[in-house]
Amino acid sequence: MSTLEMIEAAAERLQGHVRETPLLTSPFLDELAGRRVLVKPECLQHTGSFKFRGAWSAISALSEVDRKRGVIAYSSGNHAQGVALAAALHGISSVIVMPSDAPQLKIDNTRALGGEVVLYDRANESREEIGEALASERGLTLIRPYDEPQVIAGQGTTGLEIARQASAMGIEKADVLVCCGGGGLTSGIALALEGHAPGLRARPCEPEGFDDVKRSLATGQIQNNNAAAGNICDAILTPQPGDITFPILKRLCGPGLSVTEEEAMQAMALAFLRLKIVLEPGGAVSLASALFRKDEIKGDAVIVVASGGNTDPEVFGKALEFLT
Amino acid sequence: MSTLEMIEAAAERLQGHVRETPLLTSPFLDELAGRRVLVKPECLQHTGSFKFRGAWSAISALSEVDRKRGVIAYSSGNHAQGVALAAALHGISSVIVMPSDAPQLKIDNTRALGGEVVLYDRANESREEIGEALASERGLTLIRPYDEPQVIAGQGTTGLEIARQASAMGIEKADVLVCCGGGGLTSGIALALEGHAPGLRARPCEPEGFDDVKRSLATGQIQNNNAAAGNICDAILTPQPGDITFPILKRLCGPGLSVTEEEAMQAMALAFLRLKIVLEPGGAVSLASALFRKDEIKGDAVIVVASGGNTDPEVFGKALEFLT
Asked: What is the pTM of this model?
């Protein structure tokens, strides 16, 4: 179970280590969206995404004995970098199991942040087997990317900040659009808002064709995506909502929203032009939903959690073509 | 005269209207610079640059009678947008005199922010004559871009934030690198640091070949640039330091630093990759100085004021080529 109390406790442990991201605005985005748009740029978080929050929360919640043995994670993306840096800052070792065909930049970054990268052959090896062998051999604790109460609690600290910041700006009622993969960030935010800003409602945002959470919410049952890959929003492609996250999402969230790859890229371009921030495609689906699904949103203001900015220059260059 | 008291008074007037920008960090930049690098991203300020601070300060300092008559500014760039938005938010009119060959995007933006754009022919007309005629006809107050005490006071609020934020991070002694055109931002920050963080020292950063402030500081006399244009760092190309700003710079700043256009573009690319922020070339010379002039800097930490992010996609795309 993840609860508001766990989120508040995580916020105390994160104090002074996490970056409190601001709420950014632009009159140009307000105009496009037909309402006030407040963007929380988690791309400015350490390691370029919100994942650092959950990683810090989980590592700092371990017993001292367990923590000293080190942690392990499976990820080729944002979770890997978050765990590697959070572990290094705790002075402990981390093993990150990554596919050998992961982009060299991500492998290099994870190593540079202090992670011990163990590569596996996606076609012939099981990352779970490799990971379990290493974990039992060295006594490492597995940090799951979303279906992990202390990870959800860490991501939920984003929601505590939103509640405080929105209230300071006089916003008591609004939809909060959240980029959603396995649902760790969305469920954490939803719990935080339930406790501290009941007029704000979390809504998951996904790429079209990978809208498992939207369909799961609509049917009330966990639904799968047909494909595991094949969309530019790589950071948020997960097969289905988590067993821990889904009941929270179902209880607290408004309907899901989904956007095309092209709309995500356009949102990246507009974030560049109007907010001066760098978003990755999967971190821009929330802004794209605010701009291009405005009829599905209610109220005078909308809050957008832009969850990450770890994109390649090539992909970013393609997004900028929407401006020319 | 600009003084610490004026900056503190400006900070009170700006409270709740200006965005307090954070100090961003990346272990990758620390590694490159050979010391801790703390970046203050004023590109995230309203209108994409620090200029909004000075504009708000100057407009809010006017008497109610003068303010109601409106303001006027000459600028095709960041100052124009800052004045237009600050005026609109005060509910008053602004006239922005811009050359007719200014980029259409800048003209459109200034209009969209509420400015009345008056175009003039750079070859055959004098913007001063046009401006003075309009000002006397309508009773408008001219808001100068830097040689204006209340503008300097507004830019100086950046320095108050740096003093507070650096102290909270345990940094009492460091160089503060500031992108420098006419010297409004640099002199304001220098005054604020003198009062609130005497161990922090402002240092102006400029493009090579347009290093009038660096040479003026070195010789103790105001020096001119040979050319008025012809460098990608357009936002900070000014013929010479201001009459009001230079004595402040001379009294308080450390030696100037200068970087090549290529180094400014590389700094833009690294800010994209490591901080997820968008800088314009003129807003990146401070970061470039931290990364590529490290032998000219002392101490375990350096603070970098990244002053703006209003760049075209084409220029940004060129900067990203440094990563491939």
From this structure: 0.96
